[in-house]
Predict the structure.
Amino acid sequence: MAARVLAALLALALAVSTAPARASNDEGDALYALRQRLSDPNGVLQSWDPTLVNPCTWFHVTCDQASRVVRLDLGNSNVSGSIGPELGRLVNLRYLELYRNNLDGEIPKELGNLKNLISLDLYANKLTGGIPKSLSKLDSLRFMRLNNNKLTGSIPREFAKLSNLKVIDLSNNDLCGTIPVDGPFSTFPLRSFENNSRLNGPELQGLVPYDFGC
Amino acid sequence: MAINQSSFTPRVLADLSLLFCMLLAPVCLATPATTPAALLQVKSGLTDPGGVLSGWSLEADVCSWHGITCLPGEVGIVTGLNLSGYGLSGMIPPAISGLISIESIDLSSNSLTGPIPPELGVLENLRTLLLFSNSLTGTIPSELGLLKNLKVLRLGDNRLHGEIPPHLGNCSELETLGLAYCQLNGTIPAELGSLKQLQKLALDNNTLTGGIPEQLAGCVSLRFLSVADNMLQGNIPSFIGSFSDLQSLNLANNQFSGEIPAEIGSLSSLTYLNLLGSSLTGAIPAELNRLGQLQVLDLSMNNISGKVSISAAQLKNLKYLVLSGNLLDGAIPEDLCAGGSSSLLENLFLAGNNLEGGIEALLNCGALQSIDVSNNSFTGVIPPDIDRLPGLVNLALHNNSFTGALPRQIGNLSNLEILSLFHNGLTGGIPPEIGRLQKLKLLFLYENQMSGTIPDELTNCTSLEEVDFFGNHFHGPIPERIGNLRNLAVLQLRQNDLSGPIPVSLGECRSLQALALADNRLTGALPDTFGQLAELSVVTLYNNSLEGPLPESLFQLKNLTVINFSHNRFAGSLVPLLGSSSLAVLALTDNSFSGVIPAAVARSRNMVRLQLGGNRLTGVIPAELGNLTRLSMLDLSLNNLSGDIPAELSNCVELTHLKLDGNSLTGTVPAWLGSLRSLGELDLSWNALTGGIPPELGNCLGLLKLSLSDNHLNGSIPPEIGRLTSLNVLNLNKNSLTGAIPPALQQCDKLYELRLSENSLEGPIPPELGQLSELQVILDLSRNRLSGEIPASLGSLVKLERLNLSSNRLDGQIPSSLLQLTSLHRLNLSDNLLSGAVPAGLSSFPAASFVGNELCGAPLPPCGPRSPARRLSGTEVVVIVAGIALVSAVVCVALLYTMLRVWSNWRAVSVSNSDGEESAHGGHGGGGGKWGDGKYWKVGSAVSWSAEQRHSSGSETASVLHDKSTEAAGAGKS
């Protein structure tokens, strides 16, 4: 029995002594967490070696001069699985390109932490659930393409605050309610919202509740 | 019935065979009828390395033979054979069955092989049979079930397989049955339940399946029950609570499910209870607190939920409480220990639950030696009176949310060996009192918010083996006397604000294997004493301001496997780093190393990453690098290397990254690059390479980034490049490429960046480029000799953010399809032969986007009657028609808007959705008048643009591509 406790202690010592290597770079850890939740039949994530000091030499990952991850390009890569909350830790990310895959599950609300994000391309996947309100915190966002998924719920009103948003494409989902008209939404063409059978056209302030038909 | 019969048949057969053997036995033994003769037969079957049997000879009285016990007073009646632990090997001879008077056989702890002889079943006087800890094979003979007087049977720690024979249930006197550590399978036989005298049953470490049979309830004398480390399933039966004499119950590491039966609380004699490693659910039964004799309670690695409802105040004898790896929540109960000196609890393991609150309640457990509450959600401070636990040896609080400072009283825990506090929210400094911890071996403070300097007193903790302060805010110098830590194997100080030099004394840490000082503000040179760190394997100093040439003594470090000195100011030769031939990683990016790349680099044949970019290295790329056949990353970029790319590099077939850009390399782009099938990034830009682009590059099918820009390459772009269907970035800027842009490029449909500018490309822009629907960062075809019209298909590039077609010979009108480029924010069509009106939707781009053409209309001057004369009439018609259409549209829209308001009022009471969409269009049209007007372009913050420019890798300047947003911002100010 003493041996068992000793073994437990040894296991503890081992657990703590292996941890530093893993904890050494948060962006790499976040990406590696993504790798672990994805099924990757084409092996596009093969180069993602978590023991490297940073993920900047991983394929499909682009860093800036200060070795911060600014692009993630996994578009059209035949990956499946869900997008985890870990991606919210890539706070320097500017381009998140995960389009044309078989990603399912919900869009994690943690993506709202990506304050530097310019382009959020999740189109042509199998994403479900609502569009997180937290995405309205993406002050730098210019392009949001979530079209051709299975997203439900309404378009968060808070998106009207996204003053830099230039392109939004929410078409071919199962959204409901009405389309905001304020802020950048005053400029978006209706085809950005088409093929959402329960979406009721632009919101008319004071007349139609925004979640009308939801 | 049939099943019953079949299950009994083997038993009957076995009994018969036994009977047969017994009948034969006298015949078999007729010749060596005497006990000594039988013993000599046993001897002859054994190999006896220690010679313990050398005295076994007929010349001496058998009762005097080593290991033999005789019946007192009688002559020659052997009752005991004990040859335990003599290193005997060989098989147990069946002749052992000749010892008909024997009562005890102990052949344990030898190296015996072969099967257990079934003939043992005839030894009807046998009370003790100990064969454990040998290498016996085969199955357990069912004949052992004939031993009616057997009290102790221990066969464990052998290689026995097969099932436990049910016949053992016939050994009605059996008190101890030990079958642990074999390879037994099948179920626990229900027949064992007949063993009313059984006190000890050890079946652990087999591969038994099924449940615990209910018949086992018949073993009413059980004191010790262990079935740990099997594959048993089902619930833990509540009848276990009826074993009133049970002292030890070990069910660990099985697949039991369900709840812990409350009846276990009735086992008033229980001192050891281990249920770890199953799938038990439910709460900890409060009844367990009635186990007043319990010393060890281990319920870890299950799915037990609820509160820690254990009271060591009631479990007065509890020494070990192990509840790690469950789903427990809530706080540590206030009354866990009664306080004072009454608690005996020495080891408390609660790691990996969902526990919260503080740990103050533990301070009442005055006998604690080990605390592991890691991986929970504990909060609060580390209690300053932690020194109420003076016996503490191990304290693991990592992966929680503790805050506040490490109290100075920690220095009073003079027995402390492990202090693991990483990944919390601790602040403040390291108290100097830590220096009193003479036994401290492991100090992990990483990933906290601690600050201050590292106290010199830390160097008094001379037992320290592992120190990890990664990811805090420690500043000031590394203690000068760090060399006092003679036992230090790991020193991890990465990512702090440490400054000053690396202490000379560090060289005294002769046991150091891993040294990580990266991401600090260290200055000065590496001390010469570094060369004494003979055990050093991993050294990472990147991102500091270390400088100067490396001490030559470094060459003595033969065990180095990983060196990362990137981003410092080291200078001089690389040679001191090349003493080891075991290097897997040599990363020296962005320093000032000079001289040639020594061929000795290639001695480390297992090198995987060689990163020498951004130095001042000169000379040629040594051909010996071709010996590094496991090389994955070769980065020699941004040096002053000259000469050709050596053909020997073609042996580095595992290369994934080849970066030779920013040198003065000459010669051609080698065709053998096409054989590097793992290549993902190839950057040869900024060199003086000549010749053509080899079509073989089209074989590098995994290529993601291909940059050959800024060379003197000529010839045409080989259409084989179109085979690179994974390609994200293609940059051929600034060469002397001629010919047409191959339409095959359309197959590279993952391109997000395509740069072909500053070449001499001619012919039309292939309309096929419109297929590159993922083009995003830029399409740059500027400064070529491209002619013809801008293909309307480019309007399909809806993700494109920058388009530069300037300084070509493009003619015709700007296709209106470009209005579909909704993502475009920089456009440059200047200096071409374009004519006609700028499409209205593009008028928000600055004039500089269009100058140097024969264009008119906003942002350029309006299309007057004199300008583009030859097309005047056509344009006029268009303008008039458009004008009429516009006026009509405005009227219609106004009407629609009015109707819509009426309709909406109506819809508020009547739900409709089929025609809602259409009306919505109208509604949007009303508000959507802004579409295409100036307000659309108000987007974009100057800050983010300038940031992007800073990071843009291309050579094009901001003045070439005109940034709409900055224009807009300027206009806004004026």
Observations:
- Confidence is low (pLDDT under 50) at residues 1-24 of chain A.
- The two ends of chain A are 61 Å apart (CA to CA).
- Chain A touches chain B through 55 residues (CB under 8 Å).
